[in-house]
Amino acid sequence: MYELEARNLQMKFGGVTAIAGLDLVVEEGEIRGLIGPNGAGKTTFFNACSGRYPITAGEIRYRGHTISGLKPHEIAAQGLVRTFQHVTLFKKFSVLKNVMAGNYLHAQHSYWGSLLRTRKTREAEAGSERRAREILDFIGLGHIAHQQAATLAHGHQKMLGIAIALAAEPRMLLLDEPCAGMNNDESREMIALVRRIRDTGITIMLIEHDMKVVMGLCDRITVLNFGNNIADGTPEEVRANPEVREAYLGSQAHVA
Ligand SMILES: Nc1ncnc2c1ncn2[C@@H]1O[C@H](COP(=O)(O)OP(=O)(O)OP(=O)(O)O)[C@@H](O)[C@H]1O
């Protein structure tokens, strides 16, 4: 059984074909890179997997179950969770409260329970706070748990985005450009974090434009061009692939 599987996936927006019959499989425990020139369909693939947009044709399976057609929260509840390139945060909340909000999907608070502050609700909230603190310590943001999210540096905001995703208890994470806009030190921290997350047993797929990051971090890389999978292999195989070099020719990115 594959962790994630797309079969003959098609995504069309009006007359634009963003994904054109894509076949792709990800094994459990991998760090998989998803690269390709601008407009190749990378973000659309994440949007399809996370249920943001309905697929046009084909199928997406997560751990053997068809997820295409499910709502985003139903897919997240199965363990497939995505982050966004532009971090969405409750900026006025503390870092800790943001992570607790990420846990909301999995917490068992009922509406009346929250209103009446029943013992069960109080216990669930305490559990959610404990879990949020553990995640922040794991990520390395424990020391700023009470800082307002809006005041965080860019690198810490991106880390917080990942902490929020981890609070949903994923088995697989889709990371949209985790190192975008980061300086070298922040990138190094993020790369180390992605490895530590994988070492806990979470499968990772990431979109990233920085080829040094992709080549150094990923076990395997899938290359999209015009909505199609043009190469799939280890960093060395992808780097040596003439079709990949051709696809990147003239674009800003270079295959390092
Ligand atoms: N919601 C949408 N409505 C219309 N067209 C869209 C929509 N989303 C994506 N597209 C189109 O689908 C194609 C693939 O876009 P997508 O954003 O998935 O590419 P990408 O590989 O993520 O590119 P980039 O690296 O620039 O982020 C593009 O032609 C884009 O204009």
From TrEMBL:
SUPFAM superfamilies registered for this protein in UniProt: P-loop containing nucleoside triphosphate hydrolases
Residue ranges of every copy of the ABC transporter domain listed in the record: 4-251
Pfam families to which the protein is assigned, alphabetical: ABC_tran, BCA_ABC_TP_C
Signal peptide limits: none
Keywords: ATP-binding, Nucleotide-binding, Transport
Keyword set includes Transport: yes
The keyword ATP-binding appears for this protein: yes
Gene Ontology molecular function, alphabetical: ATP binding
Protein name: ABC transporter ATP-binding protein
